[in-house]
Amino acid sequence: MGSTAHNPSRRHRVVIVGGGFGGVRAAKALKRLPVDVTLIDRNNHHLFQPLLYQVATGVLSPGQVAPALRSLFRGQDNVRVLMGEVERFDLDRRVVHAVAQHEMEIPYDTLIVAAGATHSYFGNDDWATAAPGMKTLDDANRVRSRILWSFELAEQAQTQEERDALLTFVVVGAGPTGVELAGQIAILARRILKKEHRAIDPRAARVVLLDAAPTVLPPFPEKLRDHAAHDLRKLGVDVEVGQMAVDIDDEGIEVRATDGDGSTRRIASRTVLWAAGVQASPLARMLADASGTSSDRAGRLLVRHDLTLPVHPEVFAIGDMVSRPGVPGVAQAAIQEGKYVAKVISTRLNEYPAPPSFSYKDKGTMATIGRTRAVASVRGVKLTGQLAFYIWAFVHVAYLVGWGNRFEAVARWMWTIVARNRRERLISPASLLSDEQVHEEIEATRTRSKVAA
Fold it and tell me: Which residues belong to the active site?
């Protein structure tokens, strides 16, 4: 079993893998402790994922939801930020192996892994190219480009059949992300773009929200689920619950009713977006293999009551990559876990009694449907409409990093509501390429460079 002892002749070394909510909160909570913190992430930014769909639909700019990681620790001298890809964990030697320009070995006394989650296509990974999801900034840019590109292609379509397929947008998954994304696409088509095209009427676009579950927003109270479905339909969204995706390709999606006779039907669509499932980051499997820790069906680690690995008390795992009873995979849970882990480290360094087991404090669930429509459940109080929207906006603005981003987000929301316009409507040709195409282009460029040399 690993030990938590440390060498008193040097400062305690804490390595944090992941610059999301849990990792950043843990690093900030360690500010006044005599520790040296190294934060490793494959990206140079901290992503405010709950507002990622607004980047995908042109409401907010990428910079407003993704401040640079280094900027978050400008005044915290005990934090070092490294941009790199973690390749493996050596728990016996207490070393994290990562690579960027060079291979790196980062030693630690305490390790915190907060690597988050990624898309789950339930065993159908070949759907990823045809139906991108949204977990990263690149994902959001890709989705925005695909949505806007579909309207551009519809303007040039030669047949009504082609035009209809281009103007049909299917969102798979009716959780908060799917509901919010479908609502924003409907608003974009019916209110923002309605006077900007000549050969098509964007208001004729069809937005379909699919889910195998019998209702939208399954974790929410029934009253709020029904209200959200009603608001979506008022926006023009076709809400089709009890419908399971069977196959997805570049030309559309095949679905089957969960309570039907097994027959399928096809929806012709050039833009299918995935918001149906998540699974733990591949780093969770890497950490499980290195430590012998068990995981659930979604690849999430089964950690102890204090968020440590069963046989490695010096290793913490937090956020969406772990499974704890009663703890949902939301930003607030990761934030609370990050604070808790810092408290555990503090008690260990000061040789105080260990704090009680981690306990999640539910601060409510909420989702927006569009403009000033929202639903929220806060400590048993169920809210809808404008009041729910204002609470949603206040909470999200409060958790945005930096006063500049907060003011800009509020200003953008007000602008989109009053002016019915969106400034962030750039179509990036590179974003329209799949990851495989991007890698092929990089390799082709390298080959051309070698030939030229």
Answer: 180
